[in-house]
Amino acid sequence: MIDDYARGDTTIAADTVWALEAHLEACAPCRSRLAASVATEAPDIAALVDTVRASLEPQLDAAVRAPSRRHLARSAPTWLTPVMAPWLAMTGAVTLVALLLDAVAAPTFLGDTSPVLPLAPVLPLFGVAASWSRRLDPAHELTASTARAGLPLLLRRTTAVLLVVVPGLLVGGWLTGTITAAQWLLPSLAFTSTALALGSVIGVTRAAVGLMAAWGAAVLVPAWVTGGVPPALRLLLQADRLPVWGLLLALATAAVIARRNTYPTL
């Protein structure tokens, strides 16, 4: 049967061909017999295979010599999606504009408070909202069907967002001397973990957008309307409130761990 298959015998039934090919996938001895049979029964096919191998060998050698670049290209989509680039750029632009306003002119609508401070806790949510979005990721269906989809992939992409946003805020706060990491870093991590925890119930994008809307309604809108720092901002970002943010971070992290099996079905 292998000899007939190697010659391309058209009299073999289709179901027999299918069974033979399925067997060859799992049987190394029969694949060896097929290779020997092709060399004797179909020399033209053997010559074609040799020609293709000879033309591919230089490319294969080059691929082996430079594996790191190819590995990086393959692993990049597991950390960032192409659609996240404009979202991260927008987040960086918002941070830069706030820092420039703080450095060039004193903000009149926030008194002596840096305009970066009310924005910093929710800035990572812009990227988190885009990290696992069906509408924003054109390859979402393919990505969601992979074995590593779910919480591991979501955590990678969230980490990529934080690696972009947090250093920018740290450098900006250090250059301007207006805000310290203690004022916004813990609230920012608490918001991010809460978005992931709520995302296991209503979806990550909805959770992130909802938290941003709630923060804006409680802090940013009153600041703009009253022309001063809202009491809620002073209350929430005071140094003695950091244990509360830490507790929220711990509870949200525990919720993410407890509901880790729900993320592949988001």
Structure description:
The protein is mainly α. It folds into 2 domains: 2-65, no CATH class; 77-265, no CATH class. Helices cover 74% and strands 0% of the residues. The mean pLDDT is 75.
Percent range of helical residues: over 70%
- Name the helix and strand elements from N-terminus to C-terminus, one letter apiece: HHHHHHHHHHHHHH
Biggest sheet: strands, sense, closure?
none
Spatial gap, N to C terminus: 48 Å
Mean pLDDT: 75
Find the structural class using helix and strand composition.
Answer: mainly alpha
The coarse silhouette is: elongated
Domain unit count: 2
Low-confidence runs: none
Strand content: under 5%
> Helix count, per DSSP?
14
Total number of beta strands: 0
Report the radius of gyration as a whole number of Å: 28 Å
Keywords: Membrane, Transmembrane, Transmembrane helix
Transmembrane segments: 79-101, 113-133, 154-175, 181-202, 209-230, 242-258
Organism: Kitasatospora misakiensis
Protein name: Zf-HC2 domain-containing protein
